[in-house]
Every structure is written in structure tokens, then in C-alpha cells.
Design goal:
Blueprint lengths: L2 H7 L5 H9 L3 E3 L2 E2 L13 E3 L2 E2 L8 E6 L27 H4 L12 E3 L7 E7 L2 H8 L7 E7 L6 H9 L2 E2 L2 E2 L4 E4 L4 E6 L6 H8 L4 E9 L2 E2 L8 E3 L2 H9 L2
Parallel strand pairs: 7-13
Antiparallel strand pairs: 1-2, 1-3, 3-4, 5-7, 5-15, 6-7, 8-12, 8-13, 9-10, 11-12, 13-14
Helix pairs in contact: 1-2
Length: 247
């Protein structure tokens, strides 16, 4: 198995992020630093990250979190700011009897699937399943994300909706067509499947309706439901299968 994929299966990071971990020189194989993500390895190869041996694959876990504004979509922050992972610090450890890849008392090594801007709230997934994270975020799978945006610029007219639905020309090119509708006074609901930086904000700005407040309410078939800001829950097996079925 390729080294990057091995790390993803072990719950270290998504496959793409694992490649960065490898190239940064943080991974050793049989005691030697390896910087090639394509290196073939298996459980007998003696793979370690930051000096810690990877014993085996972790139990796959997926959580949904309602991210509040001001929280970063990262694993950790060097300035001590709150992160989405820090909000899951109270989840129970499963211990070595149910997870050979984790020591007793340790939390699963979760990381966010994709990102939300610090000032954007709403649904974000966290998992230790690197392969699933890769498929959910790679553009080729076109997984939809739905946002509710409170906007300025007066009433949202038909012309603005039509432009959003046909695609908006941004500085980095045309966007794919979005599903767009009015969802209340001064509120737009947009569904996109791309993942460009601050894309929804830039699309709304381009049609004359700057975003005042933005929240993601759905990721593929999953919705926030009644989950309170800052709260999280583990996905049921049925929800995981629903999510995989969208890929």
C-alpha cells in the first residue's frame, strides 16, 4: 500500500494532508525518514509519525459538528485559538480492546473534512477515515454543500438568482451553476459542489449582495437538524452508509 494511503487508513490525516506530513520529514519507515508518499509499506514496515509507531488502523469514526463563528477548521492552532477538534475533546476513548491503533485513554485522531472560514458557522464533519475524507472533498465526486447566507444589497432579484444558477465569473474563473433560492427576507440559500476559497461569499458579492452572515446547513445528504452551535454527535451507521452512497 502507498505510504500516504497507509497513513490515511491509520487515521493520521486525509490522504492529501498525509502527503504533506510525509514530505515534511515527519514519517519514518524502519527508523529511516521517508519523504516519498508512494513508498510501498504494510503493517510490518515499522511506520511511525513524529516518533510514534502506527500499530494498526483505527476504528473509523465520523462526527458532525455545528461550528460556531470564530472557531478554526483545523486540528490545532499555534496561537491557542479554538479549533473544531478542541470542541470534540469530550468524546469517549474506545481503548485498546476495541481499537488496536489507539492506546488506552487516548482520543481518536480526528481531523476536519474540508474547511469553513473562521467567520462561517454550521455543519462540518470530522473523521479519522482518510479515504472517505478524500472522496468527500475531491472535486471529481461533486459532493454538494448547502449554505444559508444573510445578505445585504436590498431585496434579492430574479436577475441575481439567474446569474447564480448559470454560474458566476470570479477572478479565478467561472463557477459551476449553483442551486439558488430566496429563503426569507434578505436570505439566500445556495447549493454548490465546488470548494474554492470563500466561494459563496464571492459569488454573492459578485451579484451585488455581500454576505453579512453565512452558515452551512447541509453536506451531501446530511443536515444540521436541531444540533446546537458548538454541539456534536457521532454519525449512525445508517448515516455513514447514506454518506458513502452519495459518492
Amino acid at each position: 500500500m502507498r505510504l500516504a494511503k497507509y497513513l490515511a487508513h491509520a487515521g493520521v490525516a486525509s490522504r492529501r494532508a498525509a502527503e504533506t506530513v510525509i514530505r515534511d520529514g515527519r514519517v519514518t519507515v524502519a527508523g529511516e525518514v521517508v519523504r516519498d508518499p508512494a513508498r510501498d509499506v504494510d503493517e510490518r514496515s515499522g511506520v511511525a509519525v513524529d516518533g510514534r509507531a502506527l500499530v494498526g488502523a483505527e476504528r473509523r469514526e465520523i462526527y458532525v459538528l455545528n461550528k460556531p463563528p470564530g472557531v478554526l477548521s483545523t486540528v490545532r492552532d499555534t496561537h491557542g485559538r479554538p479549533t473544531v477538534v478542541s470542541l470534540l475533546a469530550d468524546i469517549p476513548s474506545r481503548g485498546p480492546d476495541r481499537d488496536e491503533g489507539r492506546q488506552a485513554g487516548e482520543l481518536p485522531r480526528l481531523y476536519p473534512v474540508g474547511r469553513l472560514d473562521a467567520d462561517t458557522s454550521g455543519l462540518i464533519l470530522l473523521t479519522n477515515d482518510g479515504e472517505l475524507a478524500h472522496r468527500l472533498t475531491h472535486p471529481s465526486f461533486e459532493v454538494s454543500k448547502t449554505y444559508r447566507a444573510r445578505v445585504g444589497g436590498g431585496p434579492v432579484g430574479d436577475r441575481a438568482l439567474r446569474t447564480l444558477r448559470e454560474g458566476v465569473r470570479l477572478e479565478d474563473g467561472m463557477t459551476a451553476p449553483a442551486r439558488a433560492r430566496r429563503a426569507g427576507r434578505g436570505v439566500l440559500e445556495l447549493t454548490i459542489h465546488e470548494g474554492r476559497n470563500r466561494q459563496v461569499r464571492r459569488m454573492c458579492e459578485a451579484v451585488g449582495h455581500p454576505v453579512l452572515e453565512l452558515r452551512r446547513v447541509a453536506f451531501g445528504p446530511l443536515t444540521l437538524g436541531e444540533l446546537a452551535p458548538g454541539a456534536h454527535r457521532r454519525l449512525s451507521e445508517a448515516e455513514v452508509e447514506l454518506l458513502r452512497g452519495a459518492l
